[in-house]
Write a structure and sequence with these properties.
Shape: elongated
Helix content: 40-55%
Strand order of the largest sheet: 7-6-8-9-10-13-14
Order of helices and strands: HEHEHEHEEHEHEHEHEHEHHHEEEE
């Protein structure tokens, strides 16, 4: 960052800090799809944030101030995300948790940067850190780390000879699909088809009919569960005798509802799911979440977002300041912060490092087991 940008960042964070000094509360924003096709993810992100906030408020708040949560529904849409960014910055939040999708996260990034508001998201698109905004850090891991793991599984572990890679057109899905294709080829694997679908189309038989003629060993889908479940069901209907491997955003209970009996044998690649996280913080917070909301989180993503909030809180407490620039600098120097999802380490560019992935196999009753092959 050059001198001009550093000066501007200090000035903006000072404005945020001074406004807080005159208030009895500190505000944390949530930008997530509270409604729409990813509502169960967005609502769970909001739930987890409120769980963490209520715990902190019961302990006396943050530097003596009670935390107020301000939520904005972006419906996982870029246009709505831009509106949320303006709404939340105008509300005086110091940090925003979200969004769930990379596209919605990216659409809000510049506004948060210009206003000196911190933003942490589970979005995995590699594009999210290209601008190196000091206000942004990722609470999950990037597409590039997942694509290398996925390619190794398909090429080296399973030894698939003919691989089909399908994504939608979103920045997350297309990015992960492209990265996986490149990783497969780097290992000497054979991608016989690279296709894209329009998310929400629901009928994918035209593309799948084309794929069937290629006699693939596996179909890899890097999009979201709302399309992945239907792709798997229609693959089976067309009697395409190929394995199905889904990227991390297929890991949601609604995949089973959409795929039905075809879910049997589906493989998912993701971080460890909440119920098998071995860390003390995971056992504590997941039990608290279930006790309060009478359900488990639908996936790992609300949990990584909870860790993003916990990292912000840690930054405030350790710097004894609401200065967002100081908090951002602290978060980037934390070493193995005890996260719910494991040790939390952020690189200087805002990237979370230390990714660990797991391979799961689905059963058609909605359960899944870890694959050790």
């Amino acid at each position: 960052m050059n001198i001009k940008n550093i000066t501007k960042a200090i000035a903006v964070s000072a404005i945020v800090t001074s406004s807080l000094l005159a208030s009895d509360v500190v505000k944390i924003g949530v930008q997530a799809p509270i409604t729409g096709q990813y509502a169960n993810e967005g609502q769970s992100i909001d739930n987890f944030v409120r769980l963490i906030v209520d715990e902190k408020n019961a302990e006396g708040g943050l530097l003596g101030k009670q935390i107020e949560v301000v939520t904005c529904d972006d419906e996982a849409k870029a246009q709505k995300a831009a509106v949320c960014a303006k709404k939340l910055t105008n509300a005086g939040v110091i940090a925003v948790i979200g969004s769930y999708t990379s596209g919605a996260t990216q659409a809000a990034q510049t506004t948060y940067y210009r206003k000196g508001v911190l933003q942490t998201s589970d979005g995995t698109s590699d594009d999210l850190i290209k601008k190196k905004y000091w206000t942004f850090f990722r609470n999950s891991f990037p597409n590039s780390s997942q694509s290398d793991f996925t390619a190794d599984y398909m090429v080296n572990a399973k030894k698939y000879k003919n691989i089909v890679v399908i994504s939608d057109y979103s920045s997350y899905s297309a990015g992960l699909g492209d990265a996986t294709e490149a990783s497969v080829k780097a290992l000497g694997g054979n991608v016989v088809f690279r296709g894209k679908i329009k998310a929400g189309t629901q009928n994918f038989t035209a593309m799948l009919t084309k794929v069937k003629a290629m006699n693939p060993d596996v179909i890899y889908f890097s999009g979201y569960y709302t399309d992945g479940g239907l792709l798997r069901a229609q693959q089976k209907q067309l009697q395409i005798n190929a394995d199905f491997v889904g990227g991390d955003s297929n890991d949601n209970p609604d995949f089973y509802k959409l795929a039905g009996a075809a879910a049997e044998g589906t493989v998912l690649i993701n971080f460890p799911t909440p119920e098998i996280l071995p860390y003390p913080e995971a056992k504590k917070y997941l039990a608290a979440y279930k006790a309060r909301f009478k359900m488990d989180p639908p996936s790992i993503w609300p949990v990584t977002n909870a860790d993003g909030l916990r990292a912000v809180i840690e930054g405030v407490e350790k710097t004894k300041s609401f200065d967002t620039k100081k908090i951002a600098e602290y978060v980037r120097t934390m070493k193995d912060f005890p996260g719910i999802t494991g040790p939390f380490n952020i690189r200087e560019d805002g990237e979370r490092v230390g990714a660990k992935f797991v391979v799961y196999k689905m059963a058609n009753d909605g359960t899944k087991s870890v694959v050790t092959e």
